[in-house]
Amino acid sequence: MHSARIQQFVRRLRPSIAADHIYISSKHTGRLFICEEEELNKTIESYQRIDDKYALFEKMFLQIFLEKEFEMAAVFGLDNLDETQLRNDQRFRTHVGKFQRFINGIFDMLSKGVKSSDEIVEILRIVGRQHGNVRAMSFTAEKWPIFKNVLLELLCKDLNEKTCATWNKLISFIISEIKDSYLEHVRHARSSSCPQITTYRLFSKSRRLKNRKHSESKLTKTDTLND
């Protein structure tokens, strides 16, 4: 569905959504996150109940770096480290801490309700652009589901099916917005860094047209002389 049509759909639904649902809508992609307010509150509570959030995200990145996506570890220069060395490496610890603060911030805003919707989306877009600046690595399509699945497996370990479904919708929305912003940033960076290619193509096309007209003109003159 086109993003403009989705926005119209949200506006029509707004009276019914506002009563007992929470929603986030992205003006950039038209994507929606809609869930029952009660279920979102349970999801927020499940996150707040995690005693050691750093340990959870540390485990997530250990799985990604050591088992799922070795290329990501190489970007940080951590590909030759074992689990113990990773835990003690300041670069790894800093990355885990940044991710924890990011998720904490999202949940702080979610707890404020619909008023934070636009702010949440803009933060996700900023994170996407930041990933676009990591030139040593391309975040290809298969990398996003790996990250999502590892995170959900840890978050939903002891939760009921309905709360896990809300987690899944929320993380999917977060990743989709980050991914879209990342791809937009990469496309813009590529087009900005190669303006000479476009200029060359236009020049080449113009020159080919001139050569073709010149050849056609010579052929016309030759035919006239032969007549």
From TrEMBL:
Gene3D superfamilies: Globins. CDD domains: Mb-like. Residues 61-178 form the Globin domain. One of its GO terms (molecular function) is heme binding. Pfam families: Globin (PF00042). Keywords: Heme, Iron, Metal-binding, Oxygen transport, Transport. It comes from the Eukaryota. Belongs to the globin family. This is Globin domain-containing protein. It comes from Caenorhabditis bovis.
